[in-house]
Specification:
The chain is an alpha+beta fold and 662 residues long. The chain is built from twelve helices and 36 strands. The strands form nine sheets. The chain has an eight-stranded parallel β-barrel, surrounded by five helices. β25 and β26 form a beta hairpin. α5 packs parallel to α6 and α9 packs parallel to α10. It is globular, with a radius of gyration of 27 Å.
Length: 662
């Protein structure tokens, strides 16, 4: 039967109709713009790190970003968060990347994905997994064969997962970054970047827009830009916006202007004042960027929290605190700020804001003080804390040599000779990484600290037990020292004698706390014998105010008859000095009010229970206020992240005048 003319025309136009409907995202070099579905497109984006926010709050934070007028979000994928052990992957719970990406799409936000493999982000080791250091001389972020093999394995798992979320495949991801600020790294290995591009293309296809990010200075772009990868820049408020984009134009003469990291605030370090960026200066520079028609990503729009041990560090060694508030438009807890509404007012001049109401800040509740009691010291608990048991070695072993990544490791040896007068215990090669709490026969005698205190004086008898509890404070996340080994990475000396015959304990504190084993007050057995600490030897000089690292515990009940509880809260540590805190077995993070600037730690409501008592476990490393019946922690509804008590010289890079983030 012959087809009618109308039928033929219908069949003829089917392919063209389907082709026109296919989603696309590309670069229009002729008109200096992105093209989304064939139309000019400009994104106004904000950074949010899903790994720093509990999954239950992802929707709240993303909705607030959407209602601020953003049409995209930018996020990193931290490799070490998802592959803690080689070949063992975790994409569940707070690591459910697929759920996060789908949530972005459902809300109406596009995604700029930054999968690394290196991300910086003030995150432990810049997102690279510490197990890479099993090869001691590995050259990270280079064509080192062992590094590339690990990268290929990781990307072979990650990139197929995200491929279905690319925009051209119906997902929200419009661009994918290759590496991160590579022009700031010493290696300048173009073959490494080419390998990554080939790897990304093999998994994601040729249509996806790949980009790079570097500081807005020719020196950074020299080793960061690569043909076939669209080069973007990053810079903060207060500088010359036009000059910064002219730097991008040196490597990308045509195409959209892009600031991939426009800094709404800045990072903190322990011992420095909390960083604050002027809203007025921020708004002025943001307006200049948008007036130029440029694309911009606000880093950060919400910072979030470095729960557990995930914070990074800079050099000279300066670890970041638990809070990653960043003075961002949304606070660490997702609260609305003046900066949020000021940015929203700017954005609405350039694009229509969504209809609807901005979600309110989440309520906070002050549960009040909680009485704590002493549980056990670390040295008294070795039989349960060290699941793998002691390892004897003539020299100290590092964390990675014992397959430990985070937390604490205990080193024990005997004093080879009596020290009647104070004798220097030293780390002559600055080998304490990062902070060591030293005790002699159960009496705390001092603290060794990387780049700060490499020698202390001790006394003791020949044969006295020397305990050195070493804390990993976070691996370096930026620069050439990211190969950051932890523990005692070189020998200690006592006077002119090198100490040896070490017994090393890898400590599984998180697992033990989660199992509630520290709450058993009975004496523990070690190697078949009950451990009875020897009588303390009082120090001769100087007076010691420290106490051995000790666990404390307490419980509190939230009434189940009060509606809308539990709510978010903050925990503070009045007269405590430094340590780690777990709530219901979950590692909330480090506290260090004696150094500041952070005083309170954010406790999301999802960690709390109304149906059972809430357990608090604290590892106080220096001295607890428990001798004067003031042994309490307190839950408050007011955060304090700018209460610096001890001021130290700040890190030298200035976010207003420097072009690249540390």
């Amino acid at each position: 039967m012959a087809l009618t003319t109308a039928a033929l025309l219908f069949i003829t136009f089917i392919p063209f109709t389907l082709a026109a409907a296919a989603p696309s995202f590309s670069i229009d070099y002729k008109n200096n713009s992105f093209l989304k579905d064939g139309e000019p497109f400009r994104y106004i984006s904000g950074s949010v790190h899903y790994s720093r926010i509990p999954r239950v709050y992802w929707k709240d934070r993303l909705l607030k970003m959407y209602m601020a007028g953003l049409n995209a979000v930018q996020t990193y994928v931290p490799w070490n968060f998802h592959e803690p052990i080689p070949g063992v992957y975790n994409f569940t719970g707070d690591g459910d990347l697929s759920y996060f990406l789908q949530l972005c799409k459902d809300i109406g936000l596009l995604v700029i994905l930054r999968p690394g493999p290196y991300i910086c982000a003030e995150w432990d080791m810049g997102g690279l997994p510490a197990w890479l250091l099993k090869k001691k001389d590995i050259v990270l972020r280079s064509t080192d064969p062992d590094y590339l093999a690990a990268v290929d394995g990781w990307m072979g798992k990650l990139l197929p997962l995200v491929k279905s979320y690319l925009y051209q495949n119906g997902g929200p991801i419009i661009t994918v970054q290759v590496e991160n600020e590579y022009g700031s790294y010493f290696a300048c290995d173009f073959n490494y970047l080419r390998h990554l591009v080939k790897l990304f293309r093999s998994h994601l296809g040729d249509e996806v827009v790949l980009f790079s990010t570097d500081g807005a200075a020719p020196g950074f772009l020299k080793c960061g830009a690569l043909q076939g990868v669209y080069a973007t820049v990053d810079f903060g408020p207060g500088g010359n916006v036009t000059a910064a984009f002219e730097t991008q134009r040196q490597v990308e003469p045509r195409g959209p202007l892009v600031n991939s990291e426009f800094y709404t605030g800045w990072l903190d370090h322990w011992g420095e004042p909390h960083s604050v960026t002027s809203t007025k200066i921020l708004i002025k520079s943001l307006t200049e960027i948008l007036d130029l028609g440029a694309n911009v990503n606000l880093y950060m729009f919400i910072g979030g929290t470095n729960f557990a041990y995930w914070n990074g560090a800079n050099t000279p060694f300066a670890p970041q605190p638990t809070s990653y508030d960043y003075d961002a438009p949304l606070t660490e807890a997702g609260d609305l700020t003046e900066k949020y509404f000021a940015i929203r007012d700017v954005i609405k001049k350039y694009r229509k804001l969504p209809d609807g109401i901005v979600p309110p800040s989440t309520p906070k509740f002050a549960y009040g003080p909680v009485k704590m009691k002493k549980l056990q010291t670390v040295s008294e608990s070795l039989d349960i804390l060290s699941i793998s048991g002691p390892v004897r070695s003539p020299y100290p072993l590092t964390f990675i040599q014992l397959d430990q990544v985070f937390g604490f490791m205990l080193y024990q040896t005997a004093l080879p000779a009596g020290c009647v007068t104070p004798t220097p215990l030293s780390s002559p090669l600055n080998g304490v990484h990062d902070r060591a709490y030293v005790s002699v026969d159960g009496v705390a005698v001092g603290i060794l600290e990387r780049d700060k205190t490499i020698s202390i004086n001790i006394t003791g008898k020949a044969g006295s037990r020397l305990d050195v509890l070493v804390e990993n404070m976070g691996r370096v996340n930026y620069g050439k020292y990211i190969n950051d080994f932890k523990g005692l990475v070189s020998n200690l000396t006592l006077g002119n004698k090198t100490l040896g015959n070490w017994t090393v304990y890898s400590l599984s504190i998180d697992e033990v706390v989660k199992a509630g084993l520290l709450w058993d007050s009975r004496p523990h057995r070690k190697h078949g014998k009950v451990v009875v600490p020897p009588p303390p030897i009082p120090p001769t000089s100087p007076p010691i105010v420290l106490s051995p690292p000790t666990f404390y515990g307490g419980t509190f009940q939230i009434p189940d008859h009060i509606p809308d509880l539990p709510q978010d809260t903050y925990i503070r540590f009045p007269n405590w000095r430094k340590g780690q805190v777990w709530i219901n077995g979950v590692n909330v993070g480090r506290y260090w009010p004696s150094r500041g600037p952070q005083v309170t730690l954010f406790v999301p409501a999802c960690l709390l229970s109304t149906s059972a008592p809430n357990n608090i476990t604290v590892l106080e490393l220096e001295s607890a206020p428990c001798s004067d019946d003031q042994c309490v922690v307190e839950f408050t509804d007011v955060p304090v992240i700018n209460g610096t008590i001890q001021y130290q010289k700040p890190f030298t890079r200035n976010p207003v005048h420097m072009y690249s983030r540390v």
